[in-house]
Amino acid sequence: xxxxxxxxxxxxxxxxxxxxxxxxxxxxxxxxxxxxxxxxxxxxxxxxxxxxxxxxxxxxxxxxxxxxxxxxxxxxxxxxxxxxxxxxxxxxxxxxxxxxxxxxxxxxxxxxx
Length: 113
Hints:
By secondary structure, this protein is an alpha+beta fold. It has three helices and three strands, in the order αββααβ.
């Protein structure tokens, strides 16, 4: 094995090890941010007045953004249920329940210019 490829391999291993450490740190930071986001979310939701559901702190603006999403994707779901249940009424009832919309929210941070 040439000295050049050994250098390349050593550099690769060094960078790969650094990435593993950084990924662990990033995971920890994401978990901490999620906990803090839930606390901010609770605070913003506790303000019944929509105009107060915004926090400005310096150049950072935090606001609660609400959206709806389906609980389950309909892709092949109905066919699978029909094949397993063999009861059209049960399938219809389950499809209605599983695909109803639910309201979700998240914290949006923006920077004032």
